[in-house]
Amino acid sequence: MIAVSAALGLLLIVAAAPKLRAAAAFGRTVEAYRVLPPGLARLVGRVLPWAELLVGAALVTGPVWRLAASAAALMFGAFTLGLTVNLLRGRTELSCGCFSFGAVDESARRIGWFHAARAAVLTALAAGTAAVGVPSVELADRIVQLVVAGGVVAVGVVVAELRTVLTTDAGGLDVVLGRARDTLREAG
Fold this sequence. Notes:
Helix content: over 70%
Strand content: under 5%
Largest sheet: none
Radius of gyration: 18 Å
Distance between the termini: 50 Å
Structural class: mainly alpha
Order of helices and strands: HHHHHHH
Number of helices: 7
């Protein structure tokens, strides 16, 4: 469970970073889901990235694993609920609000059942970590587990980003790379 805790923590930290850099855009993303009253949605948009960062750090460092895992399970559960409600409403044009919510390419701003399923799996992992707890370990073992968990999170983020590029409605990878080539030619 230590590796799961570290992976969930790193994932939350990685997810918080773009939200903190573009707080206004993330606030609009939360409001767009229309599951909270506008004022509360704006507040959640401001507080959630900091909560993700703090909970992620607690899951990685371990001072209050069970509490942090419970908080992570609640956050992932809320994400699952928000995604599912909007998918059932047929509102797939929303940004998931995960890692690249500030994407300029409109095709990257679409939610699907993949997002809801991923959030549900993360909810289950966090709830399992909260239920089982995390034993204390030697520092050297903890460092190895953090490195492994970091690698797993990095691969997951890369796969998610590649999935976005490869499944874009803008014409697929060839079109995206063609646009990048044209932009580089214009700049050079």
